[in-house]
Amino acid sequence: MSAATGTRERILAGALDLIYARSYANVGVQELCEHAGIKKGSFYHFFPSKRDLTIAALDRQWELAKQQIWDPAFTNHLSLREKLRRCFDFFYDHQCGAKTKTGLVPGCPFGNLALELSTQDEAIRRKVDHIFRETTAYVRRALAEAIASGEIPKQDVSAAAEAIVAYTQGAMLMAKTRNDPGVIKELRQGVLRLLNREPRRGRQVRAGTRQQRMCKDRGGQST
């Protein structure tokens, strides 16, 4: 590894550690430079801004997440339920490891930045959205395979995949809020129950018709 590559890697590693542990707004360029043991000039040689560094750090974090969580959890020989169990177990193990080191559950690095910056920085919002779309693709492929094998009922694969990814983000957020990685284990069974629900369109139509009638009746009452 060249000296230049080593410097860039130290800056990236610092961004991964500091921004994930705290927040984007709470970490400045000066602190990132001190953490990497470099001058500001070296920082700006590799990254024009903190935003550019954060986008590069997100790419690196996603590569790590694929290697450590998504690829091993979604291997082809496993059933869909086992894939989702393993995924939640990996989330749990990661959050436990972080809490052992810092005393805090950090949550999802992508979800954290989505919450902090989606209404403030369009470039970072797009990057996080792209990562969420890639996580959804893992789930979508697994769902399609499970439907083809008869493991789960036929359903809207895209909508189901979005719901499962949203559920995982909610589980991570709750674990962070309670500072308890055990929440992820507790909520794991909920995502498995989502898979067994048959669509009940007739009931939804009847409920919708009943609600329309109620609204109409209210509209006809004098005030």
How many DSSP E strands?
Answer: 0
Q: What are the secondary-structure elements, in order, as H or E? A: HHHHHHHHHH
CATH topology of the largest domain: Tetracycline Repressor, domain 2
Assign a percent range to the helix content. over 70%
What would CATH call the class of the largest domain? Mainly Alpha
CATH architecture of the largest domain: Orthogonal Bundle
Evaluate the radius of gyration.
22 Å
Shape: elongated
Strand portion: under 5%
Helix/strand-derived class?
Answer: mainly alpha
Topology:
Layout: H1 3-21, H2 29-36, H3 40-46, H4 50-73, H5 80-102, H6 109-117, H7 122-149, H8 157-178, H9 182-194, H10 201-220
Helix pairs in contact: 1-2, 1-4, 4-5, 4-7, 5-9, 6-7, 7-8, 8-9
Summarize the structure.
The protein is an all-alpha fold. The protein contains ten helices and no strands. The protein is elongated and about 60 Å long.
Describe the structure.
By secondary structure, this protein is an all-alpha fold. The protein has ten helices and no strands. Helix 4 (50-73) packs parallel to helix 7 (122-149). The radius of gyration is 22 Å and the shape is elongated. The model is unreliable at 199-211 (pLDDT under 50).
